[in-house]
C-alpha cells in the first residue's frame, strides 16, 4: 500500500542504517533509502481501529521500523473502484516519552521494481 509522507523532513531520501540481523547487531549493518513515498503491507492499515489492533489506523500513529519516525494518517485516497490506493500521512521524530503502539515494516519507492505492483482491494 503506497504511503506518501506529506511533510518529509528532507529534500532527498535519507539513508537509514539497518542491522543485517536485528537480534545480533554484531553481524553488521546496511543502508536503506527512506524517501517521502514508502510502501507498507495492507494488513498494517485499517480505516478504523478496533480493540487489540496496534498498527496504522485513523487516530492511531505507528513507528516506521528503524527510521526513528512516527507516522500519522491524514488522508485516504481511493481509486474509481473505491479501493484504497494510497495513504497521506505526516511524520515526526519518535520521542522517548511517546512510544507508538507498534513499529511496522516498510520499503522505500526506489527499491520497488519498475513493474506495476499488485493492488488487491
Automatic annotation (TrEMBL):
The segment(s) forming the Glutamyl/glutaminyl-tRNA synthetase class Ib anti-codon binding domain are 2-91
A GO term, aspect molecular function: aminoacyl-tRNA ligase activity
User: GO annotations under biological process?
Assistant: tRNA aminoacylation for protein translation
Highest taxon, organism lineage: Eukaryota
Does the UniProt entry include the keyword Iron-sulfur?
Answer: no
Q: Which Pfam families match?
A: tRNA-synt_1c_C (PF03950)
* Keyword terms of this UniProt record: Protein biosynthesis
One cellular component term (GO) for this entry is: cytoplasm
> PANTHER family, per this entry?
GLUTAMINE--TRNA LIGASE (PTHR43097:SF4), GLUTAMINE-TRNA LIGASE (PTHR43097)
* Name of the protein this chain belongs to: Glutaminyl-tRNA synthetase 1
